[in-house]
UniProtKB/TrEMBL annotation:
<comment type="similarity">
    <text>Belongs to the DyP-type peroxidase family.</text>
</comment>
<dbReference type="InterPro" id="IPR011008">
    <property type="entry name" value="Dimeric_a/b-barrel"/>
</dbReference>
<dbReference type="InterPro" id="IPR006314">
    <property type="entry name" value="Dyp_peroxidase"/>
</dbReference>
<feature type="compositionally biased region" description="Polar residues">
    <location>
        <begin position="222"/>
        <end position="248"/>
    </location>
</feature>
<keyword id="KW-0560">Oxidoreductase</keyword>
<dbReference type="InterPro" id="IPR048327">
    <property type="entry name" value="Dyp_perox_N"/>
</dbReference>
<comment type="function">
    <text>Involved in the recovery of exogenous heme iron. Extracts iron from heme while preserving the protoporphyrin ring intact.</text>
</comment>
<keyword id="KW-0408">Iron</keyword>
<dbReference type="InterPro" id="IPR006311">
    <property type="entry name" value="TAT_signal"/>
</dbReference>
<keyword id="KW-0575">Peroxidase</keyword>
<feature type="region of interest" description="Disordered">
    <location>
        <begin position="1"/>
        <end position="27"/>
    </location>
</feature>
<dbReference type="InterPro" id="IPR048328">
    <property type="entry name" value="Dyp_perox_C"/>
</dbReference>
<dbReference type="Pfam" id="PF20628">
    <property type="entry name" value="Dyp_perox_C"/>
</dbReference>
<feature type="compositionally biased region" description="Basic and acidic residues">
    <location>
        <begin position="1"/>
        <end position="20"/>
    </location>
</feature>
<feature type="domain" description="Dyp-type peroxidase C-terminal">
    <location>
        <begin position="234"/>
        <end position="421"/>
    </location>
</feature>
<keyword id="KW-0479">Metal-binding</keyword>
<keyword id="KW-0456">Lyase</keyword>
Length: 434
């Protein structure tokens, strides 16, 4: 059996794994991770505690030792690409590529073949090429996820296959977008629980691009490392807020409908057939104005968010998962959770049920010339249709979210992420060979 066969064969080892057992079994295997946070569901800007960073779709089980971190392996193949419902990893790299001048459909297909072969090997904990960076490391929950930007379809002569869902996002008042760090023909998300493993994947995929594509922009992110807390818990963002309490859960009956493109038009899909099992990723670099935020008292910060800083519970009491009482008033007749609190405005029930699976990374890229930290959130959200997920929630936040004064959206991208590769396939094959 070859290495690539093992990467797709349900009986391969590193702990025998059954890829045919379905999403629940697959996620149970990935719960070997210690501490996990994943992407929240109601907020955007930075998902306050009801917001951006958040619970993983699959919550970790207690008792995972640190020794399990390097051993944990995420399957490459499947109905969906990895890195969407995978528990949040400690390290992430986001990179966009533009096809090189003269490169088209043929070159793109060859590139996706190379990337898929590399991802299979690396995610199985096997080195690709002559790199020795991870020679003594395990797979460390490595995932590689690939998507296509709007411009990709014109470059490859596949305009008729471009989904309507890739129409440009509307402008928002908090946008201060840098075009050089936005969009792109191709997008790659890399996640791992070891920084060297993540870097090795980034470097290898960049080398694989060869003359076919050039890096347009690249961003680095991080989260809490599995095992860093005594018990698994929701992660915190750089504002110190428990972040991601209300993320959609896979146990919810409408989870798949909200997050993944259905397999056929009978299920209400207007997407092209090659997107079956796929999802749409909105990617935004959201800078947190930490100096301004930290001037607020803790009480003022909690009113901006609508939740306690200590444990993420709503200001109306209870625990992190207690439903907030939006109709509760204080002794002065004011709402306990202010009308412009991020947690109130971002809730799905305040946005016609609009929700998305948020799975971001924090970032810190040093300090500017004034000594202000260039830090914040690499916001990534997943949905079956961005016009029903990201857009209505962000519009609502744009009109009156108290958190908006402390954040700035600096780059943006929207990518169509096809379903997972079947055995013997490469990612995107159903599009490029249609």
């Amino acid at each position: 059996m070859t290495v690539d066969d093992r990467a797709e064969n349900p009986s391969r080892t590193t702990g025998e794994r059954d890829d045919t057992a379905g999403p629940a079994a697959e996620l149970s295997r990935r719960r070997l991770l210690g501490t996990v946070g994943a992407a929240g569901a109601g907020g955007l800007a930075l998902g306050a505690v009801g917001g951006v960073a958040g619970h993983a779709a699959a919550q970790p089980e207690p008792g995972a030792g640190l020794a399990s971190v390097g051993r944990t392996e995420v399957p490459f193949g499947g109905e969906h690409q990895p890195g969407i419902t995978t528990p949040m990893q400690a390290r992430g790299h986001l990179v966009a590529f533009d096809l090189a001048p003269g490169a088209g459909r043929k070159e793109a297909a060859a590139l996706l073949r190379r990337w898929s072969a590399t991802a299979r090997r690396l995610m199985a904990g096997r080195p690709a090429g002559d790199s020795t960076i991870t020679l003594d490391a395990g797979p460390s929950s490595l995932t590689v996820t690939v998507g296509f930007g709007r411009s990709f379809f014109g470059r490859t002569g596949l305009e008729k296959q471009r989904p309507f869902a890739l129409d440009p996002l509307p402008a928002f008042s908090s946008d201060r977008l840098d075009a050089k760090r936005s969009e792109g023909d191709l997008w790659v998300q890399i996640g791992a629980d070891d920084a060297l493993v993540a870097f090795d994947a980034l470097r290898t995929l960049q080398r694989d691009a060869g003359d076919a594509a050039r890096v347009r922009w690249q961003m680095n992110g991080f989260n809490r490392t599995p095992g860093a807390t005594e018990q698994p818990m929701t992660t915190r963002n750089l504002m110190g807020q428990v972040d991601g309490t209300n993320n959609p859960k896979e146990s919810e009956p409408d989870f798949r409908k909200r997050i993944f493109v259905p397999a056929n038009a009978a299920d209400g899909s207007s997407d092209p057939a090659w997107m079956a099992g796929g999802s749409y990723a909105v990617v935004r670099r959201i800078r947190m104005l930490l100096d301004d935020w930290e001037k607020l008292s803790q009480t003022a910060q909690e009113k901006v968010i609508g939740r306690r800083k200590s444990d993420g519970a709503p200001l109306t009491g209870g625990s992190e998962t207690t439903e907030p009482k939006l109709d509760a008033f204080d002794a002065e007749g004011k709402p306990v959770i202010p009308a412009d609190a991020h947690a109130r405005i971002s809730r799905p029930d305040q946005n016609g049920g609009a929700a998305m699976l948020r799975r971001p990374f924090s970032f810190h890229d040093g300090y500017d010339e004034d000594g202000v930290p260039d830090a914040g959130l690499l916001f990534i959200c997943w949905q079956a249709d961005p016009m029903r997920g990201f857009v209505p929630v962000q519009r609502k936040l744009d009109r009156g979210d108290a958190l908006s004064a402390f954040i700035r959206h600096e780059s943006s991208g929207l990518f169509a992420v096809p379903g997972g590769a079947r055995s013997g396939e490469y990612v995107g094959q159903r599009l490029l060979e249609s």
